[in-house]
Amino acid sequence: MIDIQLLRSEIDTVAKRLAIRGYTLDTAGFGSLEEKRRQIQTATEQLQSQRNALAKQIGQAKAKKDETQAAALMRQGAELGEKVKQMEAENGTVQEELHKFVSLIPNLLHASVPVGSRPEDAVEQRRWGEPRKFDFRAKDHVDIGAGLGGLDFDTAAKLAGARFVVMKGAVARLHRAIAQFMLDTHTGEHGYTEVYTPYMVSGACADGVTSLAKFKDDLFKIDGRDLYLIPTSEYSVTNFMRDEIVPLEKLPLKFACHSPCFRSEAGAAGKDTRGMIRNHQFDKVELVQIVHPAKSYEAHEQLTGHAETILKKLELSHRVITLSAGDTGFSSAKTYDIEVWLPGQNAYREISSCSNFEAFQARRMQARFRNEKGKPELVHTLNGSGLAVGRTLIAVMENYQRKDGGIDIPLALRPYMGKIETIEPAR
RNA sequence: GGAGAGGUGACGGAGCGGUUGAACGUGCCGGUCUCGAAAACCGGAAUACGCGCAAGCGUAUCGUGGGUUCGAAUCCCACCCUCUCCGCCA
Fold this sequence. Notes:
Number of strands: 17
Oligomer: single chain
Mean pLDDT: 93
């Protein structure tokens, strides 16, 4: 949520900044809603004040045993009470309306975010390694997986329909090894605390990290309950801070979480339907940081670096881009995507998204710290994939494939794979 | 799933229909004392919002949401959560 005070005091500036990301702020609509709110709230509070004063007088009259006086005042109170109730209801409605209006506004972008709304408007920050060259025609992970007997989309479809996968044997183990490797790296070398969380969260938590009203169609909801399957553990982990005020010295908080992620992919019909690039269920190791507002951009660079480390250790060529204004997510002020080279697609594809949300999420979930003056202040929140496990598996399979259909295990993963150094094609 | 107990400020813990935003204690901040510290004593300190140039005034908040009442932390209802016992279970 953006700061409503800012909306009140500098609406034109806010509108201009939102326009950069292609969002048209209804300034007139806000103005009239805000005016209405001002009137109703003031009127309500005045009535409440009258009611409270009257109640106090009645109390005093009763204390003095002046029953006549008390009875007269109580008649007045009954009348006033009705008015108060009506006004309070009206006030509740307008406050809710205003809150809804504001909560649907996306975050303001950082000044360094490239203008534009197309993917091509993203700015490449850096590139690491060379796309691997093969002296044979490189296959994609679907064909490699079939050859290894390790990826089975037919069985998955039988179980749950499209966009799922069944992994078997050494490939399933490799998938597990990748997750372990990531967690160990982030906890052992980057100072993150490993956490395990619920895979379902309440609607309030979902609304804490983004707009539930806007994005509920992307989530799987538990039938008849206020519970959603997490589309990323950002949903569970960031909400550790919901309604909390932590001491200054606790910051920064750094959490790493391995979890499955569930996404309905409602708007992705026909996109990336082959293989396991875009599934309803995938594993991810998520990095979450809760930091002092003055440190969030520094933390953003570090967190992105932590995610990149995984790819470097796996010797996978990748690049880092700053998403364009139009592509930056609803809650984010600035996002770096890390894209890994996929020979099967002959392209760099997203494997991590690292965002600084500034106080946007913190304001939604009232996540605060006690600042240098001892006053509560909103924290800044960040997160990034470190990395998507399924897509990393794809990258490993495609980049480490051999002409005979087998794959080599990257050195960094071998400690997690027993004595296995390769996965050989199925007979 | 059944039976019971309970959810109050940073924490412990009173209050159980009326000057209670909330006693008291601990912790915290400032001061007195001290060479310094401890102890003792004095004082201060919640959050959000509204109106106002400001001083200030007002409103809301005692798990959440409703209700009763002139007035609710206190009474009633529903829900959530925690604890104890029983049952069941990975």
